[in-house]
Amino acid sequence: MKQTKEIPTLDNISINDNVQVYNDAEHTYLDAKVLEIKENEITKEKLYYIHFLNLEKRMDKWVEQHYVLKNYGHSNSNLDGSNFINHSLMKDNIVLTRKQAALFMNESDKEEEGEEKVKIRNIEKIIIGYYSIEAWYFSPYPSNFTEQKVLYICEHCLKYFKFKNTLIRHIKECEYQTPPGKKIYEMGITPDKSTSKKENRISFLVSIYEVLGSEKKLFCQNLCLIAKLFLDHKSIYFDVSPFKFYVLYEKDNNGFHLVGYFSKEMSDSSEFNLSCIMILPPFQRKGYGQFLISLSYFLSNKLNKISSPETPLSDLGKLSYKSYWTMTILNTILKNKGMLNVQTISEQTGIRIEDINYTLNELSLIKYWKGQQVIQNINIKQIEEFLKKKNESKKSHIKFDPKYYIEDN
Known about the structure:
- The protein is of the alpha+beta class.
- The chain has two domains: about 20-110, SH3 type barrels; about 125-405, Gcn5-related N-acetyltransferase (GNAT) (Aminopeptidase), CATH 3.40.630.30.
- The protein contains eight helices and 17 strands.
- The chain has helices spanning about 100, 165-175, 215-230, 290-300, 315-335, 340-350, 355-360, 380-395, and strands spanning about 20-25, 30-40, 45-50, 60-65, 125-130, 130-135, 150-155, 160, 180-185, 205-210, 245-250, 255-265, 270-275, 275-280, 310, 365-370, 370-375.
- Strands 9-10-11-12-14 form a five-stranded antiparallel sheet, sandwiched between helices. Strands 1-2-3-4 form a four-stranded antiparallel sheet, with no helix packed on it.
- β2 (about 30-40) and β3 (about 45-50) form a beta hairpin.
- The chain is globular, with a radius of gyration of 23 Å.
- It starts with 17 loop residues before the first strand and ends in a 16-residue tail after the last helix.
């Protein structure tokens, strides 16, 4: 006779059990899965590493026993990523918070039965430059550097240390007082667009350096280790030789400060113009993701290539690309007064046809007719109003400007 599993209580909760856990951000109990269990060395209280079933994996965390319900059923929460996403043209004006963005998940993002065991976050935070940044995911730093859950990172060479004093001594001798690689972009920005927490700091330059993984292997490996702290799907950490890295910095009177980067394959024959993109959390929602995406298409267009990002993208990456494609495609439609087809949009923007079709479908601006995809429902006035509203909401964002690109000598 088949035995029914006993409902978990605080005394018999096991790994892989589904329970309810109090979520501070939502002020309610949410359904969660127990991934790991350990005991507090001092209090001897049980600690549970849990994954909230309806939230993105970066919300996984250790919780104390009193956050877990003894008995559980269905969550009272009605959270659903679709509640925050509206794809219609005239209603697509919602600015997602990071918490809301974490709810935007495709079915392919969700855990599947038989999936490799979830890696528990091994670093709680990093200290780099001006910032102390909480980590989101596991990153394969050497185990002897993860014992204290905090890493101190040199913002010049990206080498990591266990202790602040060791970092301070290293900075005085670091070989990278300026970024490695070739500078390909430099643009001045106004003080009101500075992302710094320091009131007396004025960021006056945005710079991008092209770094070859084959030439600066250790630097690029360290960059990938940082990126893995904030990207769930990233899989390349050490084999960096086949890639170029476009590293974005803010520069002020205290030097260069890492903002983020994107990588792409060295081979110009690749169909992808971007392999991985990451913006450090303190610099997010400032326009830097769109900035790097614009650069990736600019570089492809210089080669007369139609291209697309490599998948899978992170949850924030998906949102950034949807926003970029929407703004670029609608601006192209407006420029041509609606008198164009998908092929023409692709030729003028460098965006792959499949990505254009996806975006137009999300905006309800395309339909199938007699076996062909036809652009429909073009209302120039509505598009003008939509773009004006979007541009106004992003007025303070840093924007890529091709005139600041530094051509090869």
